[in-house]
Write a structure and sequence with these properties.
The chain is mainly alpha-helical and 169 residues long. It folds into 2 domains: 39 residues, no CATH class; 86 residues, Conserved Hypothetical Protein Ylqf, Chain: A, domain 2 (Orthogonal Bundle). The chain contains 6 helices and 2 strands, in the order αββααααα. It has a two-stranded antiparallel ribbon. The two termini are 40 Å apart.
Amino acid sequence: MGVPNVGKSSLINALAGKNRAKTGRTPGVTQHQQWIKLANDIELLDTPGIMVPGSLDKERTLRLGLCHIIKQKLLGTTYLCEYLLYQLIKNDKLDKLSHYKIENPKTDITGLLAQVAEARGCIKPGGEPDSEQASLILLKDYSDGKLGRLILDEAEPAPLPEDLNIIWV
């Protein structure tokens, strides 16, 4: 069991040594529970992903969208790209957009998507950049690691208890 699109079916396929469970890049590929028989009378149950009930705040929702845990098209690919751009700027990783051979990447999403569209030849009839296609390319490249590593969560270390005694051996 786990959230959508984290590799449950892929793990089962690896353990089975065969592609028994259907896999894909987007959440929702596994629609039904399916028992997969392994060697030595062992069976594993492949299940659809589950999410904890309740509402998520906007930023958490966007993080899950960038990681393909929530379907990107449901959130809006341009909106997700805008959040990705925000994270690149916030983490001082705007230089990772050099993957598109863009010397001075725009810091507004409309301008950046136009640059990516031009760099990748996504031009509509009439010469207008295809921002929707560019947003799909940008999200796929991020997912494939072509824009480098980017940590979306801010982890704060838990304070150590005051009565903690460390013994060095």
